[in-house]
Fold these 4 entries.
Entry 1:
Amino acid sequence: MTCAACAVSVESMVANTPGVSQANVNFATQTLQVTYNPKQVKVTDMQKALQSVGYDLIIDTENAQEIQEQTQQSHYQALKKKTLLAGLLTLPVVIIGMFLMDLPYGNWIMMALSAPVLFYFGRNFFVNAFRQARHGKANMDTLVALSTGTAFAFSVFNTLYPAFWHARGLHPHVYFEASAVVIVFILLGKLLEERAKSNTSSAIKKLIGLQPKTVWLVEGDTEREVPVSTIQKGNTLLVRAGEKVPVDGEVSFGSSFVDESMISGEPVPVAKQAGDKVFAGTINQKGSFRFVAEKVGSETLLAQIIKLVQDAQGSKAPVQKLVDKIAGIFVPIVFVLALISLTAWIILGGDNGLTQGLLAFVTVLVIACPCALGLATPTAIMVGVGKGAEQGILIKDAESLEQAYRLNALILDKTGTITEGKPVVTELVWSEEDRLRQMELSSVLLSIEQQSEHPLAEAVVRYLRDQVGSSVVLDSFESVTGNGVKASWQGHLYQIGSPKYIKAQGISLSDELSSLADTWAAAANTVIYFAEEGKAIAVLAIADKVKDTSAKAVQALQQQGIEVYMLTGDNARTAASVAQQVGIKHFQAEVMPGDKADFVKKLQGQGKVVGMVGDGINDSQALAQANVSIAMGKGSDIAIDVAKMTLITSDLQLLPKALKLSRLTVNAIRQNLFWAFIYNLIGIPIAAGVLYPFYGFLLDPMIAGAAMALSSVSVVANSLRLKAKKL
């Protein structure tokens, strides 16, 4: 495809094929997304329909990406060669046409040199224009073929029959140099455009580069190197120091540190040992380990990230749909304007009316090529989505990227979004008389909690495991469901439980421990007591810790003029404490999942553009209702499926960055569209000769060709500026 009109042409050809319900073309990524009924239409039918208009479809599902890259690379090399050779032939034509007009046989030399430029190096423009015309369609190739073909034919006539003009007292002008230079400039523009476009997809190339091609397969006592594509679930694989993890799985033997920065954004390598998960594309540091493959091929986290980025780069922003409609009627309108300018010159131009009219006709067709229009939105989207992926912000579609900057209300779930999502022991205080025995008693406490099924017991085990050398063997253990546990060791009775349970058991509390427990409870901590023989000997505070970055993120969002709300199913006291810690003014506690979606609707009813951030299944309804939905990367699969954006690291500080990225991308789209339209609005009238009656100025077709090429390159270059922007 060579321009926006090509994309519209491809789209309409496929969309009008029986059995196809929807077709979307992305000009920048050269991809086609189709929704179709396989019982009514085959992919090969769509391919044949496109081949009839001069395009082709890569339908090899295994190697489509590689074939497309190879095709684009060979196209780029061929284009480079064509541009260079066409330029070498055109240079003497320009010198003769500009400075050596009286050279004997000058017109014949120019005709001989410019003919191969047009009909050999530029033959694709003519072939494609003819194919389009057969189907009643027009695109950029139509404009180029008509303009250069007309200029060349007019010049050939004047070279062969100069007497026709001499008899009428006029000089026979030739425009061989104009037609040849236009072809060269358009080829050069395409070359620069292809080169620039390849930079817009560099994020995808980086991600794909993270996938290793081969892997060490362990079979019994032997290890052999095999292609990663042959790996199946359940295979045992070996990863040596410095190698990339090939697929997702679980470590079965050995230990090491793995650099997971491409997934988590955290620069510090993560310790891995038996039972830990590893992900494709992450880099093993010093040790080596074996692991069992759990997710292979397209199921791996890295493959899903790549697919998400590709789909997003290929999706259309709402503004693009409007641009496509304009591009569809743009070429016919330009052709009509060119004919009007030709007719006006013939009628009003006097002796040189026809010559000047043909020149204006050629120039209007050349300057109006809608390439810049077709590249304006998709290149900005591609760079924006790619930059997001590099920062740990996965964007599912262009619409959410275009919408996000308009947010003025943002709802945050508490657990797992603002907080860590897992309870941790924040304090453990022993009674004064038992402090000397705390190591021994800690072992007993650890042993009891290891056998408890209560969700908070895990937090206590995690806290004590590093501090206590070993646990003890209990004489007995009994769980009192929902309240606490009882256990005996060396003839002593121990109890662990909530203040309510401790009170019901008639356990005595010292003023010191009781006062501490009240203070912690007021700060929204969960309090549990540890008692020995009917007397409390320690008290623990357990809390779902607020993430270190949450307060900064909320502050940054509020500075962007966004109202931040917190919704949680937790109790009011905990909600108030968390809201205060992070600086949120509006919050609601004890909220059911359905109520979250209703709250989103309520804000939307007030005219607000609402964003929802969540990580659980209970957030999925509200995520679906919101204008822009954002999932935390460590959340549930359902939340991630529903959401339009995913923050890979679950770091809320990526939120303000995502909104800034949206604003920068939309600004780039607007700038691109402005330049693409303003260029045509100014260029077409000047090309038609509007300034001639006032200033005697007529635009040369060569300058028009250069300007047209420059407009496309400037649009792509403007999009690439996004890469350098700081989020």
Entry 2:
Amino acid sequence: MKVTKQTVLIFLLSLSLISMEIIWSRIFSAEYFYTFAFLILSISILGLGLGALTLRMSKRLAAKESYGCLLSLTGLLMLAGPPVVLYLKLDFTQLLNNYQMLLKLMATIIILGSSFFTGGIVLSSIFRKAHVAMPQLYMADLLGAALGVVASVLLMNGIGTDKAAFVIVLPVFIASFLAFTTWFKAIPALLMLSGVILLPRTDQLLVSAQKDRAEVIYQHWDAMARLKVYKYSDEYWGLNIDNAANSPVIAFDGNFNRPDSLRIPFSIPSTYLTSKFDNCRFLSLGAGGGGDVLMALQDGVTEVHAVEVNSHINNMMTSGFLNEFSGNLYNDERVKVVSEDARAYVRRFDNYFDVIYSLSSNSFAALASGSFALAENYLFTTEAFQDYYKALSPNGYLMMEHQFYVPRMVSEVLDALKREGIENPAAHLAVYHLPTMRRHLILLGKQPLDGATISQAVHETNEENYAFFRQLYPAADSLQTNPINQIITNGWEARQAEASTNLSPCTDDRPFTGQLGLMKNLSLEQVKKRLLPYEFQGFPLSMVIVLVILALVIIVVLPLNLLPYLKKNSALTAAGWLYFFVIGVGFMAIEVVLIQKYTLFIGSSSYTFMTLLFVLLASSGLGSYFSTRFKTSLPFVAIVLWLIADAVLFPLVVAHLGVLSLAWRIIITCLMVAPVGFFMGMPFVKGSAKSGELIDWGFAINGAASVIGSTLVLIPVFLYGFTYGMVMAGAFYLLAYLLIKKTFVAAG
């Protein structure tokens, strides 16, 4: 393949654009909560298609001489975007009761979308002028995007997210330098130099819009999370993750040989349970700042597995900033430090745990999943509780606490035990309420729980302790009507009609535990009163945001893509217009579902996301290059057949191969995803061959459809699961199969 200047420009521009999207997602997920980050970035990405549409309506922009200026402008807008947006101090909680916030939201979308807009003009212009070389051009686009995924994650993990946001602009400036042919090359050179000069000041430029709750004594920002350590007192620090999740860090001198009167107290102790075992093996599921580990070691546990998906937190505890303060806790010979997704570790651990302990492991802390950050983890699904149950020793216990999810989790525990063949699941279960902490707690036993264990497992359930600790199940006569007791005794279905939250069990195919809100709770008065980022007691905020994005695109953006029909020259036929629309929806629907779905298999981490998206985009690039060697109809048939095969094989792969090492799970994922990616790279090229220079219009339609695809697929996924999302994607590709046989260009 001959490498041309045009392919190099596309490669560099695509590398920067997708890197920018991923890095911005990480920045704004930490600042605005991931649901709002999804909103602003999804709408901003529409700029890519709008840039292509603007080119279709204006021939002047298509001149090669304008590439250098447009690319320099793209890079400049990328540099300015995050600092300016954070300076606006957008507050989503006031969005619908403060007109200034609405104006700030509009300004944010324009600011962030501007770089996509100018970049879209360049991409579509090159596609239009060199459409006969589309297999090579589209390959360069996809391979640039694939490398951008890797670059963004490695840069965020290597130099920090704030600096990565500036470094990733360099490829665009290099492209601008190559596009200029005269002394104008000095423009991108000076802009590159400016970016380098600003690097040491990124922490000052990307100033958080959040008000810190205490003195920040340490910060770290990588592809997984933004971490802050708060100093509440000399004896108590707090580890904050993405301004959402919190984990305590307790001062400890390393001395376990102290009398009971000097032992460190814990609000949810596991002492009663761990003392039942002569050699207790303890699993801290989401160890965070090490509070669980300290408690277990203080109680004399023989072996502690501290499992935390964020490796930097473990590094802080073993040899970093938190090591000395926590008394070198993680280097105790009894502690095994594990930097891995908890579900993946539980599945592959070849022994049993006597006690599995989890405090407030947050499903609503976003995955590092680009702008598609509405995904959650798999800690609280029915299958997860099956895994935990099977991982317990014959007399083992699971103790799991959470502020919001317990009613739904109770439904999942009951379903899990039924699937495991337990005749009386309720006999294995006890549930408690800690009103002063606003927490609920589940106790699950491998064997049926006896009365003494139920009443003494945490705190003694008596009248004296009732103010701060009470037993909801098995319930005393005075508490028989409490919701938890009713869910367990009568089933969640009987309770759902009067419940204010969704009680239905989540599964690995529908792992959205945090989507607790119900549409029946949605009202204009409630929205105006407050708009919290996590509507655990109200309406389903994520679903509402998805509908808002869809409405905006369908009502405003899609009609704009009909404007070229007003011009008298040649135009796409209805079939051609619809073809580029359906392949855009189908591609993004599959991409969004695969990112989340295969995270279950290889575990939740920034490298998982990087692997999945890199393989999908890189294989699509290869498919684009080789597309002319395949019959027109083959890609569509192959994609649909793969979707069917994946629906059948994926559960088997998770069940039988999930115990393999991380390296093998990544290799297997690559082998499974690459084939569908290969064929997904062909439909756009096939459409280009039939549309000719109208491909810029097709690119504009495809851009708008991509945003629709990434949001539309979430509706069946939220409601019914990933399988239904894949069915939707398959239906769009089948429609594309029918449309590709039609004529795409009508004479003007």
Entry 3:
Amino acid sequence: MSAVIRSLADSLRRFGDDRLEALLVARPDLASPLPKGLGPLAARAAGATSARRALGALRLPELHLVEALAVLEDGTAPSALAAAVSSQPATISPALERLTTLALVWGEDELHLIRPLREGLRTPAGLAPAAAEDPSAETAAQRVAAARTSMPEVLETLAWGPAAVEGHGRLATELREAGIVVTGDDGTLHIPRSVHLALRGGRVRRSHAARRPAPEGPEVTERIAGSRSAQAVEQAFEALRLLGTVRGFDEDPPGVLRRGGLPQRDLRRLAERAGAPVPTVATVLQSAWQAGLIGHDGQEWHPTRDWDAHRVQAPEQRWTELVLAWAHGHHLAAVVGTPDSSGTGRALLSDLTRRDGVRTRRGFLLRTLRTCPGIHATADSLALCLAWAFPLVPAEVIEEETAALLTEGEALGVLDGGALTVLGQELVLALDEEVTEADARLTGALRAAAPEPVGEVLLDADLTAVVPGRPAERLLPLLDWADVVSRGGALTLRFSTTSVRRALGAGRDAEALLVLLEDASRSPIPQALTYLLRDEQRRHGRVQVSRATTVLTAESEVLDLLQVAPEASALTLHRLAPTVAVTLSDPGFALQVSRQAGLSPQAVGPDGRPAGPELAHSLPGGPVDPDLVTVDGPELRVPAAEAVARIRAAEDGATDLSVTDRLLDAIAHEGELPLGIVDGRGGVVVKQVRPLSLEGGRLRARERGQDEEFTVLVHRVTLG
């Protein structure tokens, strides 16, 4: 016969190493700093702050049990607990085991809920707070039985609803006269807890959702084998294309809002320029920001030093970095533009899109989708799954985050209509791996799923260009010069006067494009295309901008046009020669002003040759969120196994206990000890007390023989 468990500390002493490790992993705040024994560990676990944090991590079946234990008498039997939630002991056993492992419940035949949860849950399961004037259980049952004969439908409706009741008519009067509802101090009507339990037949919950609901949706089908994988790969490289638009921040940087973030008008402009939906562009930019690839100097958004290292990596590695930043991030891009609780519009790249715990909930949804690979899960069914796993999160937040996952995941190529793609399947596995292993897995997955890049182009006399496959890196500049006609197994582009003028206006060089086409085309460049490019370049006044002081060189007529243009007044140009002018403004500003004046500027190096499209950046990069402390709570600073070994060593007496740890040990054992309290004159008053709780450097205790509690700062306490 096993010994009776008398306290939470006794319960922890029965834990094996594996179970103690599971406790520390689930509640890492208990190990910061490491407790000097199981008694102090139990006292911390029973602390109000830690208990509230643990409550937020409970799933729906576990929350049902906690609510029932908060209502039932302390020391209730498991069978009575099962009946209170309309279930069976075997059904609630897994949830009860997890509550025991989390140190929220202790006991075997008699179950005890830790005090902060028993006292802190004032309205469990919709019941009113217990009050001294509530009728006894027998009196409540008699009232319900008497009222059921005259108003059975009303009582059935009230039984499983909230305790608060609204109404002032005849029915409300009858309910008040029958003792079913009472008037509170604030004048509102509510059902006393004992009466409400009688209405529910002694149960706390009408049903017990022991298992997570399964996602539902139409079956995944493919008209052409492999088409879903091809679409996922295409979307992944489309995200990289959109990420490449960040290089345009050098010449035309978006502004920064006063409260931080990217203005909505700039976001719409960037999306229009990229030819992509706003949510897709927002997802890519948000992920780039979380990866530290873009930042701001207080006035404008620019690429960072990390961007310079990122852009020279292979495409597969760049996508991996982007998607991992999204999966591990604490922000939602899909809510950009919507108002928050105060009515303020949420701006991209700001703290207004940050959401505590969203990383954990996003990971849960991704793992859930991996359990149902054959269906396109609907948003409603996924929201039900998420609400089951996080029952304390408001319903509107659940719906918002579910919709955001489907939108953002599709923008990065990991989701397709509520189902994981071949890339999404690998992402779920990478969530539980170290960074190096996750990088290798995702990079390999995209490389295996993507076809070999094609470095050649087929040109036609009707000004179309066809890339027969996935374009190689060197062919991506074609997207700046031509409009996309179709995507799929091949990329079809069409050159036009408008598209060529757009590229020239953005500072692109037509001669460099002709050199590229001569090298990549299987056939000679059509004469019509050559004429189009050179004629349009000739019509555009070419302004060369150097990084000296800033020097501008052009034909004298072009500089005359620039000098008289109203937009160029801010440059304060000084003509050194008919074809040379200088300004004190930086090259980026000169490029922007020249473009606004209707000219076609081009950045050149000190040697007069055209500069590359990428510039070096000095803005600091790095992750947006610190690595050690996250919004999901503190993390274990030492491995769980090592932490357990140290706690057991302290328990065996290998370590002297501090005053704080001795107080925590007394709290865990619910024992008394002599306590010395330093008074204001330096004297010490000794009392025999029972410590009750220790939080925030304050000890709450009760002196022997006294009913009133007192609070004292720990640094004023001594122990004999």
Entry 4:
Amino acid sequence: MEEYIGGLWDKLITRVAYQGYPDARVELAQMKNIAATFFRALGGDPGLNLQSGSATTHGARRSWLERIAGIGEKAELTWADETTLHLPAFIDYFPERELNRELYLWLLALVAHDVDPEASYLQRNQAATLALLSAFPSLQERYHRLVEASLLRRPDPSELKKQEAENELLLRQALLQPGSVHTELKKVGRKEFNFVPVPLWLNTPPKNAINNTKPASKLTPEQAQGSAVQSDTEQRKRMAERTDMPDNPSPFMLLFRAESLFSWAEYVKVNRPLDEDDNPDAQRAANDFDVMSVANDGKSTASRVRFDLDLPAEADDDLLLADGILYPEWHYKKQQLQEKHARIQMLLARDAKAIALPEHLRATAKRLRQQFQSLTPERQRLRAQLSGDDIDIDACVRFSAERRGANSGHAVASPGLYLDNRQQSRDMACLLLADLSMSTDTWVNNQARVIDVIRDSLYLLCEALSATRDRFALYGFSSVRRDNVRFHLLKGFDEKYSDQIRGRLAEIKPGFYTRMGAAIRHASAILQQQKNARRLLLILTDGKPNDLDQYEGRYGIEDTRVAIHAARQLGLIPFCVTIDEKAEEYLLHLFGAKGYIVVKDAAELPQLLPRLYAQLTQA
């Protein structure tokens, strides 16, 4: 009965006391176009996701102080973790819409200057405020407007109990004079602080956001890990029943989208250990992942099912052209390059047979060849040259007329009187790097998979470029951890496009993962060796960088970004073509505003890719 009455009282207080201003509400979605840009412009971490946050609670039930102050059940506060900045989905705290909008911008700027995130609530936010105002003094006026408006919404200390009033006075002083409060807030009772959170400040993550996961079965994480006396086989089986899946994808940046790993109709969700795990058995668990036991009755079984991610036997695999080509990899947490960290394996299709161009592409290929012939360098006839192969009659007539009509005593400079025939210059080399990971095995429509669309695109691009004198090469890549980055030779710069090359393209197949940073570094090394004036690195993919080990999420994104930056420093022109519908949310961070294009309809890629190449290579 007491809980029932308490619940009714909660609802009554929330309805009566919540003092938001719906007419002045500003939603996060309305700030989408400027939020990310503003955050990064003020020095914010460019790899941090921006996302709608969750309400921060102090205990199971919100205090009446929060409700009276206008921070009710529906209100959200701002907090950040290692990868994500959680902002309120809307702000209606102030009666003026402009103030609510300024509060969004202030919070973005404050996170960018969160100099001591491990400090207490009071000290952390004072330090961040001082750092921000010191870096951008022009924000002083905006800050004081927000503070004045915020103080009007806070509870009157004279109406509070002693300890609550003391906390409120400390908060007010910290707002008015950041850095002047060196004491800490006081607890009311044994367990909980009792104070109204400051909407202008950063808060600690909610307890339910620290482990924001959902178990795939009825087993708890503790049960899934098993007791110390359980056998190794039983532990591995239980670990296979766990999963860690993120909720509420970011409206600004795409969360990790796992590659397809299925080799049968039903799939097993797996909690994958990382290379940097504190668990001493993490490496063994990662190695054992390739072969897993599966049992439906909860008992051990002798049968084992091999995943598609397993490497094929040597006799069935592609020919190994080179092994042990080592490249560094960027560790974003340590902010340093790990030397000789990723290993490239150069591969060539073992049984590729020479074939003709597929019938369904021939009409399109013929049209593209005709169009791309206009890009072929031609001899150009230049007039009025100082030297040349022939006399420019028109220039001679004009010069003679000008000399006769000139006043006496004024010499007429001798112009160019010759015609010269010169070859136009189009000094271009292009390396296309295609993503061949398992995600390309998904279906675009009822007729074709992503890998089929990629193959047709490569066919047509080769047909188009063969009509020009541009030098080009094709490679594909996938990976299984850092020591096995598979780099497939489809066409080298020194090879002529032929039926044999078409046979290699016919043999490409999806598999494994997307360690994009290592692949870009090796492609850059190959392209750098070309002596052409312009060198284009064209990357064709359908998703984010990822792999079995720690190369997921932020780690893979940051390593790929560093690899792209290194390619630009070599004088190359990296450009990404993707069919990932949400790629714009992370490709801007990787390639910049003009360094990528998103193809909304994957089926159109074969026709769009040659046209895109023509636009990118126009002088």
